[in-house]
Amino acid sequence: TERSVQVKLVLLGEAAVGKSSIVLRFVSNEFQPNKEPTIGAAFLTQKCRLEDRVLRYEIWDTAGQERFHSLAPMYYRNAQAAVVVYDVTKASSLEKAKTWVKELQRQANPNIVIALAGNKIDLVTPSASPSVPESEDEADDATATPGETGTSGEPESLRQVPRDEAGLLFFETSAKTGEGVVEIFTEIAKKIPID
Ligand code: GTP
Ligand code: MG
Predict the structure, then answer these.
(1) What is the secondary structure of 109-164 as a DSSP string?
(2) Where is this region: Disordered (predicted)?
(3) Does residue 35 line the site of ligand 1, with CB under 6 A?
């Protein structure tokens, strides 16, 4: 019998770093070049299938504009996971991300799983073949099956230092090409305890 658990996840980060675009890629495998800024927050859900269980992410995609900062605690309170996003082409967005991580470490659930994502990596790397096929998948259950994402493929046996040694999971992503996006949610899922 398959275990299914709900996981409340919040996205935080400076305006325009690509939070909503990461969620759109994860939930619908789509990208919008001119995505409008989020007002307040948006709520989306997506399943994530691991080998031994299925998680259902309840995703709060917050607004990065400073005027919405004070709403954030409503969304990270009780969250089991957070994705803090910055833009690799904008140094100030990393500083903002660091302040979000500190705020989460002080104020959020002490067991929260935090992932840091440097997004828009497509803008700084020579264009290779997209890691996500352009063709539309008819998946409303676009699952994240380890080994089928095509982007990890790392020989685990060589690793001596875990990805989260610094207390955070870390990713570089592109919502535009899909690089690294499913991995964020799959790696977080692996860290959510089975209860
Ligand atoms: P707020 O809702 O205002 O906090 O912004 P956000 O963090 O949700 O950013 P959003 O997803 O709206 O993206 C902002 C702009 O960056 C949009 O025009 C996106 O198309 C673009 N964008 C997002 N991710 C990427 C990416 O990985 N690569 C490139 N090239 N552009 C991106
Ligand atoms: Mg947004």
Answers:
(1) -TT-EEEEEEE-GGGTS-----SS-SSPP--SS----TTSSSS----GGG--S-TT
(2) 125-160
(3) yes
**Where are the strands (E) in the chain, listed by range?**
3-13, 41-49, 53-62, 81-87, 113-119, 169-172
Which atom of ligand 1 is nearest to 32's Cα?
A: 20
**Predicted complex ipTM:** 0.99
120 lines ligand 1 (CB under 6 A): yes
* Nearest CA among 97, 92, 126 for reference residue 114: 97
Q: How far apart, in Å, are the Cα atoms of 57 and each of 128, 185, 186?
A: 30, 9, 11
pLDDT along the chain (195 residues), means of 10: 81 98 98 96 97 95 97 96 98 97 95 96 78 50 45 66 79 97 96 83
Of 10, 11, 20, best ligand 1 pocket probe by most atoms within 8 Å of the beta carbon: 20
pLDDT at 139: 46
Helix/strand/coil percentages in the chain, nearest 5: 30, 25, 45
pLDDT at 149: 41
Indicate whether this model's pTM tops 0.80.
yes
